[in-house]
Design a protein that fits this description.
Layout lengths: L1 E8 L3 E2 L9 H14 L11 E5 L11 H8 L8 E4 L5 H14 L5 E9 L5 E2 L15 E2 L19 H12 L3 H20 L27 H5 L20 E10 L4 H4 L5 E10 L8 H13 L6 E6 L4 H11 L12 H4 L6 H16 L3 E8 L3 E9 L4
Parallel strand pairs: 3-4, 3-5, 10-11
Antiparallel strand pairs: 1-8, 1-9, 2-8, 5-8, 6-7, 9-12, 11-12
Length: 393
């Protein structure tokens, strides 16, 4: 069995915001140091693996940012590290991989997490087939979405992320008003959570940066303000900058261990990873993938939705979040009760660690036993994890 012993993240910063001058490997190193500070009795040299998520890999986070961050954080050189890329789900995937290492007995303690600087994601140029082409070449942004697409890919698969979710909204009949209401709820709940001190022990500042809260939260947002925003992807569309997650920078980390590792770590476990689920479908329908991923994770945990007391669903877009909640048939009040990515931000490689950590704390706060963390992933995938609150089991 695998347990979550500690978790921490940076505040999430806006694109071109507070972390614009901070390298992603430094963001990652900072949360590694921060999570080790939560377990002062743990000898870093006994960590079996660092498993790190990152969606870009094209800039300063290249060359295995998980290993680089561990070295920058001062971990002993004998602690191995790897980087995984499942786009938006990368850090949740890292935690799932780490839990499998522990479940199989290949590791006792794993440090999982992820990082993304969407601000510092570089422009790239494809190499020409021949040297010194006479024609112009185009620099491609690696910040988000498809780039350098293989022409053999069907066109319907490679539509923009926003267009893909406009299609989902049409398919399931989710209109603009519901999306704006969902977005407003995200901002209000996130602001209230910060005001109440919920995130104080889950978030660590970045050295040299005075940002102490998530930079994208708009506590003064209103339905009127959201309704005034123009569509982002279609002239008559429903998705706007206000009801979709923003481009963001940040990092997250989760300390995982076996039951026997408690004495070595020096902490009591927060939650048990009870089930894992992965699911894939047509790339343009990626926003719906958490529906089946969660069903798989619940089945593997041996429970049903009627036993789930809290859900953390990454809010890539309000429309896909609403579609998932509708499909699950659950009380919307148990979903993202402390705000979500529309307000908090969505630095791709770090968001999975954020939803997992938030879920573990919400379960303890509400004294609920079972919870689900889920995330949709570009190119048609979804991930989900079931947590069991060990303080009520």
């Amino acid at each position: 069995m695998t347990f979550v012993y500690a978790a921490v993240r940076t505040p999430f910063a806006r694109f071109n915001g507070a972390f614009a001058a901070v390298r992603p490997d430094d963001l990652a190193a900072g949360v590694i140091r921060a999570i080790l500070a939560k377990a002062p009795r743990l000898d870093p040299g006994v960590i079996d693996e660092v498993v790190w998520g990152n969606a870009n890999g094209a800039g300063e986070e290249n060359r295995n940012v998980g290993r680089m961050a561990a070295l920058l954080a001062g971990l002993p050189v004998g602690v191995p590290g790897t980087t995984v890329n499942r786009l938006c789900g990368s850090s949740l995937d890292a935690a799932m991989m780490g839990s499998r290492l522990i479940d199989t007995g290949d590791a006792d303690i794993v440090l999982a997490g992820g990082v993304e600087s969407m601000t510092r994601a570089p422009w790239v140029l494809p190499k020409p087939q021949r040297a010194f082409p006479a024609a112009d070449v185009t620099a491609v942004s690696t910040t988000l979405g498809w780039r350098l697409v293989n022409t053999r890919m069907p066109k319907e698969w490679t539509v923009s992320l926003g267009e893909a979710n406009e299609q989902l909204g049409e398919r399931f009949g989710v209109g603009r008003e519901r999306q704006d209401e969902f977005a407003l709820r995200s901002h209000r709940l996130a602001a209230a959570a910060w005001d109440a001190g919920f995130y104080d022990d889950l978030v660590a500042p970045v050295e040299g940066v005075p940002l102490t809260r998530d930079e994208g939260i708009r506590a003064d947002s209103t339905l009127q303000k959201l309704a005034g925003l123009g569509p982002s992807f279609r002239p008559d569309g429903t998705i706007t900058a206000g009801n979709a997650s923003p481009l963001s920078d940040g990092a997250s980390a989760v300390l995982l261990g076996s039951e026997e590792a408690a004495a070595t770590i020096g902490l009591e476990p927060l939650a048990r990873i009870a089930g894992r689920g992965t699911y894939a479908l047509e790339p343009q329908s990626f926003g719906y993938a958490p529906v089946e991923a969660a069903a798989i994770a619940l089945r593997r945990a041996g429970i049903g939705w009627d036993q789930v007391g809290a859900v953390e669903l990454n809010e890539a877009f309000a429309v896909q979040s609403l579609i998932c909640v509708d499909a699950w048939g659950i009380d919307p009040g148990i979903v993202n009760a402390r705000g979500g990515a529309i307000a908090i931000g969505h630095p791709l490689g770090a968001s999975g660690g954020r939803v997992l950590a938030t879920l573990a704390k919400v379960l303890r706060e509400r004294r609920e036993r079972w919870g689900v963390a889920a995330i949709c992933i570009g190119v048609g995938q979804g991930l989900a994890v079931v947590l069991e609150n060990t303080t009520t089991a």
